[in-house]
Amino acid sequence: MDKQPVVSRETVPLAALLRQGRAQLGAVFSLPEARAILRRLLSHYWPGWEAVWLASRGEAPFPPEKLPAWQSALQRLAQGEPLAYVLGEVEFGGLPLKVAPGVFIPRPETEEWAFWVARQVAAFPPRTVLDVGTGSGALALFLARAFPSAQVFAVDKSPLALSIAAQNAQRLGLTVQWALRTFGVEPLPADWPTEWDLIVSNPPYIPWTFWDQTEPQVRNYEPPEALFCRDFSLYAK
Q1: Which pLDDT value is given to residue 5?
Q2: Within a 10 A sphere around the Cβ of 83, how many other Cβ atoms?
Q3: Which residues are catalytic?
Q4: CB-based contact 142:92 (threshold 8 Å)
């Protein structure tokens, strides 16, 4: 007989759950950060929890079948793992993107830059777009949605990143052509355009000499090749 999964029957009121969560995350995050993370976790594991909270004044029990996943998430966060990896997703420009360890997590400042780029070229919508070092596909997919008539292409040297990017495109119903390439070292596919209306990239920009000064959440979990560069001369000019 196949073993059935173990389901927790423990009941914990919401208010108590949040108190426990704040205590567990307190060693890693400030109180405002911990509160924001806990709210994000609740929204992920129990959509609509705010209404339940208001109706019960925090005394409604957290769904017991979701408690093991909640506790596992808190343990991973308390060890310093980024929230995006714990949840397996992050929002970028209104797009829910899948992410996983080994794939760079899109940053809010990159999201702001993407909106800025879209505004700058809105009067003359690009017909061809190239995203270099696409990672999760954030920039390519954002621009594919912003400019539906554009042909969007993206490259990355990481097979894992391209796999995640392709999954994101499929989930979102957006069309991007992907290629596994080390840009500047390997040529682009022969059937791709040779001229581009718009080229975007969020390349590695932190000198390796800053490795020890980087936050542990970043240094210990995110792919270093997506963040750190050995030749900083391009950015110094």
Answers
A1: 44
A2: 20
A3: 104, 202-203
A4: yes
